[in-house]
Each structure stands twice: as structure tokens, then as C-alpha cells.
Amino acid sequence: MTGSIVAMAFSVLFGTGLLYFFLVTRGALIANAFVPRAQDRFHVYWVYSNMRLIKFSDRKTWVAAVLLFQYDRLVDKVVSEIRRASINGKTFLMTSCAFGDVMPKVVKALVRGGAGHICISDLIGNELIHAGKKLNEFHGKFELAEADATCMPKDDGTVDINLIFFLFHELPDESKKLAFSEAARLTAPGGKLIIAEFHRPRKRIMRFLGCMYFTVFEPFALSMWGQYDPVHCLEGMGGWTCERATYFFGNFQVVTATKTA
Ligand SMILES: C[S@@+](CC[C@H](N)C(=O)[O-])C[C@H]1O[C@@H](n2cnc3c(N)ncnc32)[C@H](O)[C@@H]1O
């Protein structure tokens, strides 16, 4: 009896969580197709634009669950790649905010390493306000900038280290292409572009489950497994050497690309 009550409570909780996740991600894309919205942000989930939803949803456990509990490993890798790029005096850009503690960890490493300039940009003002609060302890040591990853208001070759953490899979394909070329344009010769993203899993069962998940919740993500694979895109542009580390049966990747020319 107690067992079935616990099982029922768990099912209700799990079902409610899935429904909430659907509404704030895919639900937003469906609604945005009907409600007039600026063309450059019709792809943005409500969970990133509404301040109440941002505050409610920015919980590390939730983000970690979406990333199959690989979040800490991915963040650790990103931070170690930033440190490896020798930070002192360098110009750093994080193109788009992210939930969890990736921003505080990255900014802490940058401040300690003596970065010359730290900028965090995002398309959505509320995300930047929220980021500012999360980074309160580093007040005055970073800049927040409202900017679209597909047309960045920065000069060519002005960024030494550019971090893009799980943004590409949320962009429509045409925007992915523009965001890759903007990231390439901004990076200084010898500079690093660090990309954390989904990757095509090695196991067929994981590809099947991943395919179902993306089809239901994140329809722009599947092309990250093929045409918009970061290494494929950057090497296709020429002038980049890429190193890739994959995680959890190949489900995730951190790519560190160095601009050679
Ligand atoms: C980086 S992705 C989410 C990553 C992951 N789900 C997480 O939170 O860890 C979400 C961010 O991308 C931003 N974003 C979406 N489209 C963008 C664009 N074209 N340019 C800049 N930022 C964008 C959203 O406003 C949001 O803050």
C-alpha cells in the first residue's frame, strides 16, 4: 500500500516536471508561432525570457538532470580549458548566459587568473539582470552586454577566449550558421573558442532516446549531431584546429578550437 502511494506520488511529480519542462521550452516555440514576437527571439524559450520562470527554473539539479548529471564534469572541463588558455590580460567573452553555477565558476577562474576584460552577453535583458545577481561577488569586474550571437556588436579579432555553453542547439539552423561565423570573426588569431554542446551518442539506444527527447522538447538540437557539429563547422571554415572531449557515451562534448589564422 505505502509502496503504491510512493510510486503514485513519484509519477505525479515526474509527470508534472515533464509537463512544466514542455510548456516552458517547446510550448513557448509553439505559442511564439502565433503571438507576434520580434523575429530575432521567436526561438527563445519562456524559461529564459520571463523573470519569474528564470528564478524558479535556475536550479542546478534541474539543469544537471537535463544534462544526464554530467553538468559538473562539463563545467570542470570548460574551466580547465579556460585556465589552459593562459588568462592573464586576456579578453574573455561568454556568448549567452546559462543556468547553474557555470558563470560564477568561470568568472572566478578569470578574475583569479587576471583576465583583462570579462564580458557576458545575452539576447535577453532579464537573463543579464539575473546573471548580474548571480555574479554579485565579482561586482565591477565584468561587463554585461545585450547582444545577439548572430550579429555581435564587436570588432573582428577582439576576443581571446570565447565560451559558448549550450547555446547552438537552441538556435534555428540559419542562426546556428550565423552564430558560428560571428564567433569565428570575433576570435583573435591564436584565440580560443570553447563550445560545450550535445554530441551524437555512440550507442544506438542513446541515439533513439536522444532523438525522441529532441523531437519533443528541443527541435533545433538534432542538427548538432550532423550538419552543425562544431568541429565539422569550424574545420569546414578553415583556419581552426579543434580538440574534442566527449562525455557519457558520447552524449556531450567540449570542443576547444584554436584560431590559427
Ligand atoms: C545558453 S542557452 C541555455 C543553456 C542551458 N540550457 C543552460 O541553461 O545551462 C540559453 C541562453 O541563450 C540565450 N540566447 C538565445 N538565443 C540567443 C541569441 N541569438 N544570442 C544570444 N543569446 C541567446 C537565451 O536568452 C538564454 O539566456
Write up what this structure looks like.
It comes from Candidatus Methylumidiphilus alinenensis. Keywords: Membrane, Transmembrane, Transmembrane helix. Pfam families: Ubie_methyltran (PF01209). This is Methyltransferase domain-containing protein. With about 260 residues, the protein is an alpha/beta fold. It has one domain: Rossmann fold, CATH 3.40.50.150. The chain has helices spanning about 1-25, 25-30, 45-50, 50-55, 60-65, 70-85, 100-110, 125-135, 175-185, 205-215, 230-235; strands at about 90-95, 115-120, 145, 160-165, 185-200, 240-245, 250-260. Strands 3-2-1-4-5-7-6 form a 7-stranded mixed sheet, with helices on both faces. Strand 6 and strand 7 form a beta hairpin. The mean pLDDT is about 95. The structure holds S-adenosylmethionine (SAM). S-adenosylmethionine binds near residues 63, 149 and 170. S-adenosylmethionine binds near residues 97, 124, 148, 166 and 175.
The Cα radius of gyration reads 19 Å
Q: What is the tally of beta strands?
A: 7
Described by the principal axes of the CA atoms, the overall outline is globular
CATH hierarchy, class: Alpha Beta
Low-confidence stretches: none
**Helix share of residues?**
40-55%
Key structural traits:
alpha/beta; 7-stranded mixed beta sheet; single chain; 11 helices; globular; transmembrane; Rossmann fold; binds S-adenosylmethionine; 261 residues; Methyltransferase domain-containing protein; 7 strands; membrane
Q: What is the secondary structure topology, with strand pairs?
A:
Blueprint: H1 2-24, H2 26-32, H3 46-49, H4 51-57, H5 60-66, H6 71-84, E1 91-95, H7 102-112, E2 117-122, H8 125-134, E3 143-146, E4 159-165, H9 173-186, E5 187-198, H10 204-216, H11 230-237, E6 240-247, E7 252-259
Parallel strand pairs: 1-2, 1-4, 2-3, 4-5
Antiparallel strand pairs: 5-7, 6-7
Helix pairs in contact: 6-7, 9-11
The structure holds S-adenosylmethionine (SAM).
